[in-house]
Amino acid sequence: MKYLYLHGLGQNAGSWNKVIEATEVLDHSVCLDLSEMVKGKAVTYSTLYSAFVELCAAENEEIILCGLSLGGVLALNYAIDYPQKVKALVLIAAQYKMPKRLLKLQNALFRFMPQSMFQQTGFGKLDFISLCDSMVELDFSGSLNQVSCPVLVVCGEKDKANKRASIELADIMKHSQFKEIPRTGHEVNLESPEELASLLRKFYKSI
């Protein structure tokens, strides 16, 4: 069994370190670096997802996907397209239908931010803008029933922008459960790594 972790936009592979150390599956876990997956290519959702599909295809074992925000969108997309490959799915603060107004507002803010604010993520300022622009039309509403594996949906109590979508996901999808982490915002893996790891340990043992 291989556990693949996908970080959110604005994070990097190291954002999962504290969580994975506490999950008891460290030897079988891989933290993917999304920026490395599209290095030298146009940074759009399509190119990122295609690179992720290729990476998963190279795995001979069943995989468990755990993604936050953008990483959750990629994981959900893959579980819809390749249900036979995914043993279980963890979606953290993930949207299944992109909030267009929020993405456009986010991109407007990115345009005013200095380049230095993006350096630690591996993506440049224009990459952020291009990626968000390319995601605006994403909508998996009609395909959620294609996910057949157990699903854990997680959201921070203070993550107002994503809580409603998380609850809806858990209601719509088969074999799914919703867990809220108290006193926590959007970046659950950074803000409450031990609490998240506790949820993951219980979920992994149940599948």
Description of the molecule:
The chain is of the alpha/beta class. It has helices spanning 17-21, 34-37, 45-57, 70-81, 100-112, 125-135, 160-172, 188-191, 193-206, and strands at 2-6, 29-32, 63-68, 86-92, 151-156, 176-181. It has one domain (2-206): Alpha/Beta hydrolase fold, catalytic domain (Rossmann fold). The protein is built from nine helices and six strands. It has a six-stranded parallel sheet, with helices on both faces. Helix 5 (100-112) runs antiparallel to helix 6. One of its GO terms (cellular component) is membrane. Keywords: Hydrolase.
Question: Under the CATH scheme, which architecture would be assigned?
Answer: 3-Layer(aba) Sandwich
Shape type: globular
What is the helix/strand order? Answer: EHEHHEHEHHEHEHH
Round the Cα radius of gyration to an integer and report it: 16 Å
Number of strands: 6
Sheet having the most strands: 6 strands, parallel
Mean pLDDT across the residues is: 93
Classify the oligomer. Answer: single chain
- How many domains is the backbone divided into? 1
* CATH level 1 name: Alpha Beta
Compute the number of helices: 9
CATH superfamily: Alpha/Beta hydrolase fold, catalytic domain
Binned strand content? 15-25%
- What is the structural class? alpha/beta
Distance between the termini: 12 Å
Under CATH, the topology is which?
Rossmann fold
Low-confidence stretches: none
Q: How much helix, percentage-wise, in residues? A: 40-55%
